[in-house]
Amino acid sequence: MAPASARAAQAQPQQPSADRRLSTLVGHLLPSSPRRTAADTSATTLESFPTMASQGSSVFAALAQAPEDPILGVTVAYNKDPSPVKVNLGVGAYRTEEGKPLVLNVVRRAEQMLINNPSRVKEYLPITGLAEFNKLSAKLIFGADSPAIQENRVTTVQCLSGTGSLRVGGEFLARHYHERTIYIPQPTWGNHPKVFTLSGLTVRSYRYYDPATRGLDFKGLLEDLSSAPLGSIVLLHACAHNPTGVDPTIDQWEQIRQLMRSKSLLPFFDSAYQGFASGSLDKDAQSVRMFVADGGELLMAQSYAKNMGLYGERVGALSIVCGSADVAVRVESQLKLVIRPMYSNPPLHGPSIVATILKDSEMFNEWTLELKAMADRIISMRQQLFDALKSRGTPGDWSHIIKQIGMFTFTGLNSDQVAFMRQEYHIYMTSDGRISMAGLSTRTVPHLADAIHAAVTQLK
Ligand SMILES: Cc1ncc(COP(=O)(O)O)c(C=O)c1O
């Protein structure tokens, strides 16, 4: 059997038609192209260049309008709505009680320190990013005393937030891992299937959420993972599952771990909400640490978008926990080959902020307090919404609102009810009924409760 890398090379999608289209385009554009004869060139007028042709015509004229992203499109629609009572619960970003984006105080301080440091330059980072940031990120998720870190079995590369980390990990697996199928929970974050398919993996799903109980379909999950082919990759949300807000208990995690290890299923953790679920960074990393403690291998995609509020800075890390230090070195060398042609090397500012905060115990403590305050506000929004629905006598059991954790609540509202609430109450959410608790405030809870009450009583 050919080595995995050779098989991967064979399996790389060939794009002859794309290449042909490109060289045809170049042929059209360049008068000196060998494809054009002298007679052609002498007859060339400005109008014969498609890009310079009369106004309105385009080489892209046949292009269809692409649909809006189902999640980001909610904000596009919200921005167009002139209503003064509109509420955006689609966006996965924290908002203050006043509905404003929040820049953490500790982040502002770190930025000030970076700006005031005259020795800082703007040179390129290495392909793998800021080394200090990578070390601190691995420590944050795996724990300072993690045996995998102490044994140098972890390789970490800075990536473009959580999405970029998933993409780099996905492409690495498609090239170098023997099994190309990744199992993702049903439902999951809408970008997962696209990221992994474009990485070159085959995406399948495992049962996760039970609409009847609005909780975990644990039996379905175990059945589906039991019947996955040996060695398959399994995507796991480390905590605060998006979109359902439903996480396994620690006992359930332990059963999942045993099953996965017994079938050599490779865990690929997605940690986009460490600290956001419970307010504790360590508690939210428990699931991951259980898998590292057994000595097995795994991938970990980390994002600082939510827990440090660094959304637009695109700061994240991909760590691969390997069986030995020697393998970790070779894995890193191959990760560089994935990253280099994709974006060369990652940005400097975001990881510098993160490293400044993580390495200073006083700033780290300030961060944990600010993080806890965000998590607590979200938890309080859950309670307020639950109380408001109870006080209105809204039909149904709404206890899942306080049981689910993290940024999102999977309300159980159907797409007709979601459309009704948008039209009648100017409340925006994704069509699957997911609402961002971080977008709610004490002022907007009554409006949302009125809307939910009307939706469930008028549209069954
Ligand atoms: C489950 C999950 N994974 C990954 C991400 C990636 O986020 P980012 O690329 O902004 O870090 C998100 C963002 O919403 C998410 O919910």
UniProtKB/TrEMBL annotation:
Record's protein name: Aspartate aminotransferase
Assembly and interaction partners: Homodimer.
PROSITE patterns: AA_TRANSFER_CLASS_1
Species in which this protein is naturally found: Setaria italica
Residue ranges annotated for the Aminotransferase class I/classII large domain, each copy included: 86-452
GO MF annotation list: L-aspartate:2-oxoglutarate aminotransferase activity; pyridoxal phosphate binding
Stretches the record annotates as Disordered: 1-20
Pfam families per record: Aminotran_1_2
Presence of the UniProt keyword Glycoprotein in the record: no
Matching SUPFAM superfamilies: PLP-dependent transferases (SSF53383)
Enzyme Commission no: 2.6.1.1
Entry annotated with the keyword Ligase: no
Superkingdom of this protein's organism: Eukaryota
Alphabetically ordered keywords of this record: Aminotransferase, Pyridoxal phosphate, Transferase
Regions of compositional bias (Low complexity) in chain numbering: 1-17
Other facts noted in the record for this chain: In eukaryotes there are cytoplasmic, mitochondrial and chloroplastic isozymes.
GO biological process: amino acid metabolic process
